[in-house]
Amino acid sequence: MKGHPLQNRFVLISGCSGGGKSTLLAELCRRGYPIVEEPGRRIVADELASGGNALPWVDTAVFLRRAIDVALQDMEMAKAHSGWVFFDRGLVDAASALEALTGEPVLHPICSDHRYHGRVFMTPPWPEIYVTDSERRHGFQTAMAEYQRLMDALPTLGYDVVDLPKLPPSARADFVLTTLGDGAAPVA
């Protein structure tokens, strides 16, 4: 699908929690590509450090509204880069979760105005590598529900969803870059 040329450089990597997104992004960063860390994890770290309540297990709606704001700021800041910019989760994740939680029709209006590349890469459920930690407290079943919600939402926004193969990070990065048609070095 065609979109704003600038945003065609913004590649969203989403999917099941614990499916290897952050590890893939670290590999792309190691190769010199700019990455944008997951808004939710940054918010959780900030809130835990400051004693705030914008946490998914304390006030989910406040957390998701903050995640939408952070994702929009991330997209604005990413405009400073040329070439591919890879996002670990983002606007679609937060907006679809808020809409599912509250029933507020936020997904289509906000995500139609702020677009990523037409091809979105999804990490499938991968129970063998799934772990919880201080920032990811939900279980695998919740992660599966999140994944299914995204798999339902992304096509309604006109995105071509590509499942990432269960491969080591280097091979996954090769797959992403080959799928995007980019064998060339990144432009900083």
Automatic annotation (TrEMBL):
InterPro entries: NadR/Ttd14_AAA_dom, P-loop_NTPase. It comes from the Bacteria. Residues 11-166 form the NadR/Ttd14 AAA domain. Transmembrane segments: none annotated. Coiled coil: none annotated. This is AAA family ATPase. The lineage of its organism: Bacteria, Pseudomonadati, Pseudomonadota, Alphaproteobacteria, Hyphomicrobiales.
